[in-house]
Amino acid sequence: MRLLNTETLKLEEFYADIPRYAILSHTWEKEEVTFQDIQNLETARLKAGYAKVSNACARARNYDFEWIWIDSCCINKESSAELSEAINSMYQCYEDAVVCYVYLCDVSIEFHPRNPKSTFKDSRWFKRGWTLQELLAPRNVVFLDKDWVRIGTRWTLRDVVSAITSIPVEVFEGRDINTYSVAQRMSWAASRETTRPEDQAYSLMGIFGVSMPPIYGEGGAKAFMRLQQEIIKISDDRSIFAWVAASSEHKEHRGLLARSPYEFRMSGEVKASDSDCIGDRSSYSFGNNGLCIHVPLETTDDSSHGDGVFLASLLCQSERDGSFLSFYLRKTSRQQYVRCFPDQLAFRSTLQAALNDIQQLTVRENPITRRSRFDTGPRSAVMYHADLLPSARNFLCTDLSSPVIHSPNPSRVSIRLSPWTSYRYKLTYKTPVTQEAFTIYIWVPRSRDLPKYTLHLGDQTFELPPFYTDPFRDDGTVVRLGGGAISVHCEVTGRLDRRLEIDFIDQDSLEIDFWTQTLRPPRSGLIVPSRVDRRHLYGGGHDRTQLIGVYPPNLYVKTWQDMAYIPMSPADGGTSLPFRILTYGTEDGEPAFHVRVGLLGSSSGTPWTDVVVAHNQETAEYVYQSYVNNRRLMQTSGRFRFDRYYRGTASVQKRSSLQLGTHLLCLEWWSAF
What are the Heterokaryon incompatibility domain coordinates in residue numbering (predicted)? Predict the structure, then answer.
């Protein structure tokens, strides 16, 4: 493994006894510094990407890291053998790093990430394929803005990152990703893109714990098929077949494997299959004539699907309502089938399958658990440094418990913690003028895990929970205090110690509310069309309008090529009658009409919708406020007249196939004559 020295910017190779290192995650831009460039620093300084390398080293060096790993210059991409090895070990590189610095070159700290005005959610980093594993693998992740200013950590912003990526927040709270089904993990990559199509598959190898040689030029679909074949070798989870194609492929015949992660965009609720119920017939394998698999089959009573069509159960259930998922198969010969209607996965209330009494047993291999090269638990005493940032230096440490190591720096207090101690240390800070105070308690849990801390207002003794409980995390505590708020976050360093950095957020800051908020996932939502075509009455051609805006804005909105997901619950603390304004318009952003959609009551409540023509280019905000002022209830569906040439119908239906949310918006147009 090659690492870059943060002081000299020289590369060094390590084969064993790899030192503690930081790692950089970023999106590639013009003139990145390559392995060849970094050999000569004079040459490297001439490239625009040198500033990124230099600033990353400075950041790591500031926190006592002697070494850093940066993919652009630590891999010799001119060597195909080295590139293949690097791709297969990339997840391990990020997993073994002490801390991952995520540099967002297109984000400013001007607004807090929970503020809809923030550019954090729009960062290109959240849209790239390779950065998914760089978000999941490291133990510690720190987000930095374009000026290398700290935005927050994966822990402090876990609700925001979850809303942006559709990855359950429990993942960022420590839940093992291997407890999620194959379909769920695939869905996390559905909206991500890569420069080379094959990388859509290669970038997922570490997440599924498989390896395969990269073959650039084979195409994205073939690479993704190889990935699924590798996953099948180590897993019998049938959720790998729980995908839906685009609606344009409704009449096509397919096999059982998906062609890209995009086809798993609706699969975030699909649980792993319960294959034990069919015993030794749960295994399946590839042959030269396709995938050989045992599936419970039943006839479908829907005549619209035609003859020779069966429903095949995946043995998977929906996390939302417990329904069983089935896909459609059409019989082509005695034992040969193809998957038909690939854009649909049907719901069944019960699993209707004739299961034989099978006595033969199947012994499974336990998966090999990958471990980090570095033991994250403290083996010896750990130093905790409590640093007052400039904004908080009007506070003085007035009450502290020993053993404290006094520093010549008046803004720092240091404590040496032993992993075997049962003592809890107390640091109290107070302002001399207003006497406002807060107290930080630091201790080592009996689990011999890393030290923990908790923040408490005031200078009185706080009754801490028993030592065997661990309700507090060691990062991202924010509490209100008089004229503002106190924020404490933890930075890891290259010397096994920890830094608590104490910040004061002024009351006048517009962002203070966003620091203390927690986003809640929506309970319901709609799938809506991303594009609407209105065909001309005379002659050929048509007018195409597309979804250009959603008001009020929401981090949970997802947009794809042919559809979009619109959350409907008031997750942002909005009105008690949740609704959204969808704006459709031309490619240049000129609005044509607005659609008002909402659900009355719970996720199973009454849906309503209405269409408003955008006269005089009325904005979505104007339409939204006019509805709030009138507070009129809408019908489940309704007809409208767009102009003297066109009429249409807007309706909301409950979902009948696998999709995000609970309902589906349908827009239909026809001639007014």
Answer: 21-105
Q: pLDDT tens across 491-541, in order? A: 888 877 888 899 988 877 767 778 777 888 888 889 999 988 765 444 455
- Burial (Cβ within 10 Å: 0-12, 13-18, ≥19) of residue 5: middle
> Would you state the structure tokens that stand for residue 204, as one six-digit string?
């997922």
Q: In what order do the strands lie in the sheet with 22-25?
A: 11-13, 2-5, 67-69, 22-25, 99-103, 141-144, 150-153
In angstroms, the CA 31 to CA 583 distance is 39
Half-sphere exposure of 230 (CA within 13 A, CB side): 19
Q: Cα(173)–Cα(75) distance, rounded to whole angstroms?
A: 31
The residue type of 174 is G
Alpha-carbon span 135 to 137, nearest angstrom: 6
How far apart are alpha carbons 419 and 435 in whole angstroms? 34
Digit-coded pLDDT (tens) for 178-199: 999 999 999 999 999 999 999 9
Supply the mean pLDDT for the chain. 83
Task: Residue count of the chain, please give it.
Answer: 673
Q: Spell out the residues 6+ positions from residue 72 whose beta carbon is closer than 8 angstroms to its own.
A: 28, 32, 33, 34, 49, 53
> What's the pLDDT tens digit per position in 333-387?
777 888 899 999 998 888 755 443 322 222 233 444 556 666 555 556 778 888 9
Nearest to 187 by CA among 268, 93, 288, 287: 268
Cα–Cα distances in angstroms (integers) from residue 302 to residues 66, 309, 346, in the given order:
66, 9, 11
Q: Which of 275, 186, 171, 215 is nearest to 521 (CA)?
A: 171
For residue 477, which of 462, 456, 447, 461 has the smallest C-alpha distance?
456
Alpha-carbon span 534 to 541, nearest angstrom: 9
- Greatest extent of the chain over all pairs of C-alpha atoms, in Å: 88
238: closest CA among 202, 205, 209, 281? 281
Closest CA to 426 of 480, 394, 463, 380: 463
Alpha-helical runs (H) found in 67-181: 71-74, 80-96, 131-136, 158-165, 169-172
What does the DSSP assignment read for 8-25? T--EEE-SSSPPP-EEEE
Residue 473 CB partners (closer than 8 Å, separation 6+): 155, 452
Residues 54 and 23: their CA atoms lie apart, in Å, by 13
Beta bridge partners of 142: 101, 153
Residue with tokens 């090999």: 368
Amino acid of residue 335: Q
Write out the two tokens for 646.
Answer: 């066109």
Counting other chains too, the contacts that 307-311 makes at CB distance below 8 Å and 24 or more residues apart are 309/340, 310/337, 311/346, 311/348
- Distance (Å, rounded) from C-alpha 505 to C-alpha 515? 9
221, 376, 398, 493 from 445: Cα distances, Å: 49, 14, 26, 20
How far CA 225 is from CA of 229, 241, 260, 261, in Å, comes to 6, 12, 8, 10
Tokens of 318: 């929906």
Neighbours of 322 (CB within 10 A): 11
| Nearest CA-CA partner of 142 in 174, 99, 180, 111 | 99
Tokens 């002490």 sit on residue: 98
CB 155 within 8 A of CB 99: no
Q: Which helix (H) or strand (E) holds 51?
A: helix 50-62
Distance of alpha carbon 295 from alpha carbon 310, whole angstroms: 11
- The answer to whether 611 and 629 have CB atoms below 8 angstroms apart is no
**Nearest residue to 292 (alpha-carbon basis) of 333, 247, 345, 255:** 255
pTM of the model: 0.84
